[in-house]
């Protein structure tokens, strides 16, 4: 489709090097060449981007605005080349210039404007929206510093700022023409207008300018390029002596500080709410700016604002963008001049909400003191929404004050954001079947009883274009060899691989690809961690954010147990195993950070014990992020999905492993349940309590880990080693807090909240079974191949199609490539 051949590419790269750096090509550094290559790719994108814009103007399709505090995009260069279908041409061109395409890709900073699952899901969704040809904007924040870089020093996590914009980032475009003002604080004055209506006027406020940067979201081979708009903040006027003269000195400095601090940093926390005022400011900032741009776009083609729901839908990615509700109300009433009922009718037909967690610590609540001071007019509106909502509850459940208290949006001095979102949204969805059922039956039961029609499930998915086509080129071309390349845009075709799972030759090919990917990861680990690992050992991998509920602790306790066993029984015939961890802990999450230290200390002891003959190795990969994740999934034999059942809303790394032919050891939690449904339980290693059992124990409060500790000598030994200096000779008390979290009853918290000890035996037995299965090469390869063959359901293309069918009802856009003479 492109008239770019490798010779033209070479020419353009060289000329860009000259243009950008006034250098001959041979003198350029890899960084400079990365910029030059990116510029060629960007030029390719621009025409399609424009054409998509034109198509949207002409066809005026219904458009989704995906509102999210986080977009964990990962690197763009390789992905863009692939989606433009020019990757091979670039690879050849660079080859002929004496360069390796992956080392050029490695020069790109990893745009990490997100924490984990929720942010990465948003990025996968954008890729699918463009590929399926649906009009969409991602709306977020252009954090100056994204997710911190993780350094491991003496086994401890150290957070280092992620200065991703230090050098010019090639895949963004500043759009100053879409600058909007966003106001904070002050007070609201009312005034009766000429028409007799009450007008609300905010005065004495601080304000900033929101300036968007657009990033292109390239669809696969279809000329569609949507935009991710991420907002930067600028002061209205830069501090000047002039304003000092006018007596505005303090205001000018304050505005400047506000703008600077607003988008400074992503909150690196995805488990506990921080309740920080600045975070609420960030939320309002990007919501207000995005809505203003959306409404301005709408009004370009429409006179009647009542038609907004026909053309626009806002999807709120968790509660973080819930201010979309009152801000849309404000814009419709205070700016567009509508009355309450009309505004509410429009708003409730435009907003939808996705829930991503049942963990109560993560459910956002804002103290009304902060909320009303920072957003006085918005607070007014939320109060009125709450007043009307409580009346509605009373009407439905007369006399049931308990109901009203449980469901009120404003309660006990706080604004409950999830309840605000549900009261206004026309759709509320969970992210896996089990998760949605738990929302309906437990977490949000009152709301489900009141609005059953709002609730629906949308099981998460991932984009095969990044996590197979780009991340695992060997397996990708093997799949294409076997079944053609239709899977790239229709993952359900993967099921056609099933005919090969018993084919000896195919099995051998599959194994050899896995082996090569293991070599690639081993090289990376050697380079980045200085640890030598054996590609013939089983790669058992757990990579995800560090959380107690995800139970990295269960994993490392089991490693400690295995180590003891090998020491005690050197005659045991075990297959060498390499346990690989990768995880960032929120900077203030003490027990999570200590778990990282424990993993590293256990690694130090085990990896240096010559007596165990390399039967066991433990590696902690520093700075787990999208770019190294792609490589890790491709190399994994075993995928650890061991959360306490009911706690992991969906999980998405489970799907990435599955696609890449790793076999899961896991609990029946999140989307793992549906993976097992697709491939059959015989193709996974399932253990532990079910969600129902967990919930029952939680309700009865009848679990006492001390009983297990007292009875199980192996567990006892491992836990004693945690506090007798075995793994921390310089400070035997170092890991006491972890020990206490498992065993100590103090009044406020339940010991072993996440049932590590309860599930331990079942986990250990299942690990043994896994190792026995691995001995049977054919059986194992078949299982691994079945994983790849059954992953079809877990494409984000499928997920997005379901959002479109059931919630968004978007129109397709048809993009015709620009004619040459238009270029
Ligand atoms: C307020 C702080 C905060 C920040 C982020 C609380 C909670 C979050 C997110 C909801 C956490 C998150 O990333 N959840 C994950 O979302 C994924 C995508 O749906 C799911 O696959 C994971 O199971 C869920 O943990």
Automatic annotation (TrEMBL):
Function: Allosteric enzyme that catalyzes the rate-limiting step in glycogen catabolism, the phosphorolytic cleavage of glycogen to produce glucose-1-phosphate, and plays a central role in maintaining cellular and organismal glucose homeostasis. Phosphorylase is an important allosteric enzyme in carbohydrate metabolism. Enzymes from different sources differ in their regulatory mechanisms and in their natural substrates. However, all known phosphorylases share catalytic and structural properties.
Protein name, as recorded: Alpha-1,4 glucan phosphorylase
InterPro entries: Glycg_phsphrylas, Glyco_trans_35, Pyridoxal_P_attach_site
GO molecular function: glycogen phosphorylase activity; pyridoxal phosphate binding
Cellular component, GO annotation: cytoplasm
Annotated PANTHER family: GLYCOGEN PHOSPHORYLASE, GLYCOGEN PHOSPHORYLASE, LIVER FORM
Source organism (scientific name): Candidatus Weimeria bifida
Catalytic activity: [(1->4)-alpha-D-glucosyl](n) + phosphate = [(1->4)-alpha-D-glucosyl](n-1) + alpha-D-glucose 1-phosphate
Pfam families: Phosphorylase
Enzyme class, first EC level, given as a word: transferase
PROSITE patterns in UniProt: PHOSPHORYLASE
Family indicated by similarity: Belongs to the glycogen phosphorylase family.
Entry annotated with the keyword Glycosyltransferase: yes
NCBIfam families, alphabetized: P_ylase
Domain of life: Bacteria
Positions of modified residues (N6-(pyridoxal phosphate)lysine): 656
UniProt EC number: 2.4.1.1
Gene3D superfamilies: Glycogen Phosphorylase B
């Amino acid at each position: 489709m492109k008239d770019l051949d490798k010779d033209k590419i070479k020419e353009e790269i060289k000329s860009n090097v000259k243009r950008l750096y006034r250098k001959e090509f041979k003198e350029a550094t890899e960084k400079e060449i990365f910029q030059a290559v990116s510029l060629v790719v960007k030029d390719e994108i621009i025409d399609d981007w424009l054409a998509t814009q034109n198509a949207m103007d002409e066809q005026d399709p219904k458009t989704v605005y995906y509102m999210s505090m986080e977009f964990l995009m990962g690197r763009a260069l390789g992905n863009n080349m692939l989606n433009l279908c020019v990757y091979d041409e670039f690879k050849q061109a660079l080859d002929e210039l004496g360069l390796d395409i992956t080392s050029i890709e490695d020069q790109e900073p990893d745009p990490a404007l997100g924490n984990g699952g929720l942010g990465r899901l948003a990025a996968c969704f954008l890729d699918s929206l463009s590929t399926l040809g649906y009009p969409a904007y991602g709306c977020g924040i252009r954090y100056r510093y994204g997710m911190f870089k993780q350094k491991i020093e003496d086994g401890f996590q150290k957070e280092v700022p992620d200065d991703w914009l230090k050098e010019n980032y090639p895949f963004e475009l500043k759009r100053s023409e879409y600058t909007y003002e966003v106001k904070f604080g002050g007070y609201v004055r009312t005034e009766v207008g000429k028409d007799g209506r009450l007008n609300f006027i905010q005065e004495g406020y601080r304000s900033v300018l929101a300036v968007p940067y657009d990033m292109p979201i390239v669809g696969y081979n279809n000329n569609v390029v949507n935009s991710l708009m991420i907002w930067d903040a600028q002061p209205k006027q830069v501090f000047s002596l002039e304003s000092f003269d006018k007596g505005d000195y303090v205001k000018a400095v304050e505005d400047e500080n506000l703008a600077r601090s607003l988008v400074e940093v992503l909150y690196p926390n995805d488990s506990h709410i921080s309740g920080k005022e600045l975070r609420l400011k960030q939320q309002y900032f990007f919501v207000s700016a995005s809505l203003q741009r959306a409404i301005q776009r709408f009004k370009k083609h429409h006179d009647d604002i009542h038609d907004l729901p026909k053309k626009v839908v806002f999807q709120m990615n968790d509660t973080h963008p819930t201010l979309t509700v009152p801000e849309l109300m404000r814009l419709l009433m205070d700016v567009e001049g509508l009355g309450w009922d009309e505004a509410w009718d429009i708003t409730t037909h435009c907003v939808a909400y996705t829930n991503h967690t049942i963990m109560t610590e993560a459910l956002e609540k804002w103290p009304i003191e902060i909320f009303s001071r920072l957003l006085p007019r918005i607070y007014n509106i939320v109060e009125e929404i709450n007043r009307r909502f409580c009346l509605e509850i009373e009407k439905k459940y007369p006399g049931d004050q308990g109901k009203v208290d449980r469901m009120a949006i404003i309660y006990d001095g706080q604004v409950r954001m999830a309840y605000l979102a549900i009261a206004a949204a026309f759709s509320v969805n969970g992210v896996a079947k089990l998760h949605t059922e738990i929302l309906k039956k437990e977490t949000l039961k009152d709301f489900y009883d009141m609005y059953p029609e709002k609730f629906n499930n949308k099981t998460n998915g991932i984009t095969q274009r990044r996590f197979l086509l780009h991340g695992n080129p060997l397996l990708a071309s093997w799949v294409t060899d076997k079944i053609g390349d239709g899977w790239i845009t229709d993952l359900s075709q993967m099921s056609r691989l099933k005919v090969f799972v018993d084919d000896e030759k195919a099995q051998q090919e599959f194994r050899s690809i896995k082996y090569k990917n293991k070599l690639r990861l081993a090289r990376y680990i050697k380079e980045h961690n200085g640890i030598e690992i054996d590609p013939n050992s089983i790669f058992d991998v757990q990579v995800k954010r560090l959380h107690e509920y995800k139970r990295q602790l269960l994993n490392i306790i089991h490693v400690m147990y295995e180590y003891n066993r090998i020491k005690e029984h050197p005659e045991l015939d075990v297959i060498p195993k390499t346990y690989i961890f990768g995880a960032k802990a929120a900077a203030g999450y003490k027990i999570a950070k200590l778990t990282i230290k424990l993993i590293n200390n256990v690694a130090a002891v085990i990896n240096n014990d010559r007596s165990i003959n390399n039967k066991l190795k433990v590696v902690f990969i520093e700075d787990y992020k999208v770019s190294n994740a792609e490589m890790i999934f491709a190399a994994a034999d075993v995928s650890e999905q061991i959360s306490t059942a009911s706690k992991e809303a969906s999980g998405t790394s489970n799907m990435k492993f599955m696609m890449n032919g790793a076999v899961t050891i896991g609990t029946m939690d999140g989307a793992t349940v549906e993976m097992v449904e697709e491939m059959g339980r015989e193709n996974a290693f399932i253990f532990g309590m079910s969600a129902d059992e967990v919930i029952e124990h939680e309700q009865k409060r009848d679990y006492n880990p001390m009983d297990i500790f007292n009875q199980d000598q192996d567990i006892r030994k491992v836990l004693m080693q945690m506090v007798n200096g075995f793994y921390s000779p310089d400070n035997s008390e170092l890991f006491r807090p972890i020990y206490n979290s498992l065993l100590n009853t103090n009044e406020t918290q339940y010991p072993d909240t996440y049932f590590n000890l309860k599930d331990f035996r079942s986990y250990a037995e299942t690990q043994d079974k896994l190792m026995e299965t691995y001995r049977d090469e054919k059986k194992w390869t078949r299982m691994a191949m079945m994983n790849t063959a059954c992953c079809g359901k877990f494409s984000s293309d499928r997920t997005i199609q379901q959002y479109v069918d059931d919630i968004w009802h978007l129109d397709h856009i048809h993009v015709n490539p620009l004619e040459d003479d238009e270029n």
